[in-house]
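Hi all, posting the design record for the shared folder.

TITLE: backbone redesign
STEP: 1 of 1
STRUCTURE INPUT:
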């Protein structure tokens, strides 16, 4: 009798298994994908492998990304082509060919229910896209025109972010020939992460092609009127120069840690100076990687060499600013460049603490709070202050005249949070979200210049360009710290708002800068948006603006 009950019970379990598994599948969130805000769909749903790799059907690659795809059943090989990039992935093989060079994969081609599935991040990045994973929403954002933003544009929930009718610029200065706008700094950021501006993916391992591409980029920028470049030399805990601390960047060869056969930074410095242009070495301070995978990282990468320093926040790996040894290693990395190259400046962007995501540093707070700072927020700000001050001291001890500056998020604090803040309603601020106490850096003279990223229009009421320029001008006045304005050339023609459907938004902003002697120049993000994409003839407009004022 007991035996029969056991058999009946087993049969019931077996019969219920399909229902259980079906329910589990129904409960699994569907992964959604978008490219520059446009939803991408395939004939089957994406899924995540046990090694945390997102797999998508070939239809996403061919129809969504516009790449050519070919499947060879005999060899189980997928070939993906776009422009000059050719990728070959083989089912079951843990390497791929990128323009003939072998690259290690976490996961290669898989065949599921008769569908050919490929790893989205690998394919997307090799095609020049940036891939951002939102774990909570199970959503993947692909970007084709800019590095993934550290923060999204500020939004005020109770009102639209863009007025129905764009407000006129305030004020719009005359553009007659001979009007003087003698700003000293006319800079452009050159992004190397994801091979955005330089070097191209197709130049991997090709020394002469990389040099020729950089020469061409400088020549185009100079012809427009730019006199300085800010080149990303440490994009993801790696380097574009020989380092004893961090590995070679994968943007040079396709493989992190692989020697490119020359010193790119040495070449870039020489090329810039030959053209009479300044070159500033741009470092992402606390970003370790652009995703959470460590499989393809070199053994000397900080995430592998010092995993105890690493925090996974929002699907990216960060170096914990709360650990003194970690801060010092970043300083040591910068000082390699300061001591070894004739650069004109050291430049940091806004990668301090990440905004809008949880950051697991409770243990560091307990272990390294030697000053017994009562709140974690103030302890975090103290960590960044310590880093900024010490780096500046070490730079100027070696090269007193070297320019040292930082490009923080454009809103320090909203006036609602601090009566001395800007007349803005940003959902993210440098002080409260990234723990970047820029006011202290300026008042203490720890930096030589500040270049706030004011990436919004003259009619964006939540964070208006003119109001923010006004605020930063007052902040630097009589401080001895120079003010350059970081400007969003990347938004021209890509942002759907009416005010960005013309290059005149940038020109009007430049003219607004000219109201103030304190604004000593501008830096455009980013180079290829001007030299390659050139929306609405932006390069020509900038040429007229920069060169009409040479009197």
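Okay, here is what came back for every position:
SEQUENCE:
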């Amino acid at each position: 009798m007991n035996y029969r009950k056991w058999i009946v019970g087993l049969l019931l379990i077996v019969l219920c298994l399909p229902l259980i598994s079906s329910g589990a599948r129904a409960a699994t969130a569907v992964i959604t994908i978008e490219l520059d805000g446009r939803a991408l769909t395939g004939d089957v749903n994406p899924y995540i492998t046990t090694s945390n790799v997102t797999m998508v059907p070939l239809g996403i690659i061919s129809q969504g990304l516009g790449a050519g795809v070919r499947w060879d059943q005999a060899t189980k090989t997928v070939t993906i082509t776009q422009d000059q990039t050719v990728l070959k992935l083989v089912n079951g093989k843990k390497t791929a060919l990128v323009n003939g060079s072998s690259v290690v994969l976490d996961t290669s081609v898989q065949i599921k229910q008769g569908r050919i599935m490929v790893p989205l991040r690998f394919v997307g990045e090799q095609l020049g896209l940036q891939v951002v994973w939102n774990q909570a929403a199970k959503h993947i954002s692909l970007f084709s025109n800019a590095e993934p933003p550290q923060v999204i544009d500020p939004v005020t929930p109770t009102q639209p972010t863009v007025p129905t009718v764009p407000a006129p610029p305030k004020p719009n200065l005359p553009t007659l020939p001979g009007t003087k706008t003698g700003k000293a700094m006319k800079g452009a950021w050159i992004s190397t992460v994801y091979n955005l501006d330089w070097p191209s993916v197709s130049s991997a391992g090709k020394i002469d092609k990389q040099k020729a591409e950089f020469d061409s980029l400088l020549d185009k920028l100079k012809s427009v009127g730019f006199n300085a470049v800010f080149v990303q030399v440490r994009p993801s805990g790696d380097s574009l120069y020989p380092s004893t601390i961090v590995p070679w960047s994968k943007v040079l060869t396709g493989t992190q840690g692989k020697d490119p056969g020359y010193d790119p930074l040495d070449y870039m410095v020489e090329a810039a100076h030959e053209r009479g242009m300044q070159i500033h070495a741009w470092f992402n301070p606390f970003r370790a990687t652009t995703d959470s995978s460590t499989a393809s990282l070199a053994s000397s990468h900080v995430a592998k060499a010092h995993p105890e320093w690493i925090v996974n926040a929002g699907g990216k790996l960060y170096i914990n600013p709360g650990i003194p040894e970690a801060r010092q290693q970043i300083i040591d990395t910068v000082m390699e460049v300061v001591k070894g190259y004739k650069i004109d400046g050291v430049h940091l962007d806004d990668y301090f603490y990440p905004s809008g995501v949880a950051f697991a540093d409770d243990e560091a707070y307990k272990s390294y709070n030697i000053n017994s700072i009562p709140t974690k927020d103030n302890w975090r700000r103290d960590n960044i202050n310590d880093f900024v001050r010490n780096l500046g001291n070490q730079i100027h001890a070696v090269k007193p005249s070297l320019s040292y500056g930082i490009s923080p998020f454009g809103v320090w604090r909203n006036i609602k949070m601090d009566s001395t803040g800007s007349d803005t309603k940003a959902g993210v601020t440098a002080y409260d979200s990234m723990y970047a106490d820029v006011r202290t850096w300026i008042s203490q003279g720890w930096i030589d210049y500040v270049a706030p990223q004011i990436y919004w229009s003259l009619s964006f009421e939540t964070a208006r360009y003119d109001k923010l320029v006004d605020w930063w001008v007052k902040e630097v006045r009589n401080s001895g710290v120079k003010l350059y304005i970081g400007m969003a050339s990347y938004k021209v023609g890509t942002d759907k708002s009416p005010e960005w459907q013309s290059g005149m938004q940038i020109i009007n902003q430049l003219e607004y800068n000219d109201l103030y002697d304190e604004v000593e120049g501008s830096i455009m993000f980013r180079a290829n948006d001007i030299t390659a994409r050139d929306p609405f003839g932006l390069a020509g407009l900038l040429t007229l603006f920069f060169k009409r004022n040479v009197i």
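COMMENT: Confidence is low (pLDDT under 50) at residues 10-27, 156-181.
Let me know if anyone wants the other runs.
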